């Protein structure tokens, strides 16, 4: 039953983009926490000049005035150029491993996060970020959590000083780390942000929506912008980690030029919600996935579909929400969202949705006349509106006037881009939702949700002889051959799309392999590239763990080094499909 409350309103139409929020606790402690190492005071520190938070707040507020859909920014980006070779403190450990730490300080910061522009980690290496008090931790990061550009955007930690820590196991190869920027939080985080009329999802009114709640995520772009998204199911039922959100989240305002470079920086936070009903805070940001790629999007219907670089881990207990692109008017509505980048909330409207013609004359958007219980706010953008009749997503939030009563709003409406309008919105697959949610071309207009199995796709488990590339979908192994025998190649370095094998010594790699997702490119296939640096014989085996297809590349002993450029290797991308219309 939908619990009723006063309808909420707002003072102006806004696009719901806001900053990241509180609560970050890692599940595995950094290596230094349980070892005899130097005290932090003896670790190399890099301190930036102090910033004037009041001036930054005033400047941000002035920039937001009169700009339709201007994103709310809570942090200032401070460029850096620090590497593990030239900064930080190295130590040898009793187990034969090595430890590197670097202290970073930005005086007056409420929160800190980092952009690492280059991350190359050998197998077994682990990277953490934590604050000086060690009560907010992020990590560990291994090679598999680096995004497809070889970058890493960390989640935030609280306070003005943070520690970046790297552990290398015994006999590990050399790493490469470069810190390109620090994000100095000057407002909001970690203070409570969202309005008091929001409903925590852990409260009883959320009970009928437990599955959908597990599918909703908070999205943070470049450490400064927050939106809401949700894992969505597709007709292949292959659990590709697609996240549906709003297109304007990657622009400066509704209808503005998209910045696709924001997408690789995305961090998706799962299960960020209050632990107790009514607390409206206190959630953990420890369950997250860093890195994503663009799949499809279109401005008029305001939909954005991205694919996470890694699937959510099994212990995230995630859920792929179902959808309905049939276009029929729902008789009521439910929204699950992250207001102002804060803990997950749920809102209810008892009244039928109507098609808006005031702001969206082409009939692309639903209008919520006013929320009967709860509201939406900045940061709620991209959240699904669900039909209570079947629990399926029918649209994503563009913006509106809604706010809590204390904001003294003048109008109550919100506006949601229809999935039915997004289905065949543009001229090609990159501007249509249908080809991706119905990759089998079944003509489906509805699909139920499903449980996430978690972890890498079935069959691919990284090890010292196995690379898991392209988001963990492709299993890559290699063998070397000599006249006297041979053996398995071993992994020297790895990231999300590429890796190096060595035959004899970790420092001397003999084979570089890449698997590239060109589904949105001219061939519409996955590509395999390989480059060798030896005349020894070599066999490279690449397996798609979803379809079961395998490609084998052989180079005989004594012939020139292996060179593979197979741009038609795996024809397993979603096929364009026709489906629902409005």
Highlighted features:
582 residues, Jelly Rolls, Thrombin, subunit H, 7-stranded antiparallel β-sheet, 4% helix, disordered N terminus
Task: Note down, in words, how this protein is organized.
The chain folds into 3 domains: 31-68 and 75-185, Jelly Rolls (Sandwich), CATH 2.60.120; 190-451, Thrombin, subunit H; 467-570, no CATH class. With 582 residues, the chain is mainly β. Residues 1-15, 18-26 and 576-582 have low confidence and may be disordered. It is built from 4 helices and 41 strands. Helices cover 4% and strands 37% of the residues. The longest helix is centred in the first third of the chain and has 12 residues, at 53-64.
CATH superfamily of the largest domain: Trypsin-like serine proteases
What best-fitting shape do the alpha-carbon axes yield? globular
Q: Supply the number of helical segments.
A: 4
CATH class designation of the largest domain: Mainly Beta
Instruction: Give the second-level CATH assignment, the architecture of the largest domain.
Output: Beta Barrel
Measure the end-to-end span: 30 Å
| Number of self-contained structural domains | 3
What radius of gyration results from the CA coordinates? 24 Å
- Overall pLDDT score: 86
Strand content: 35-45%
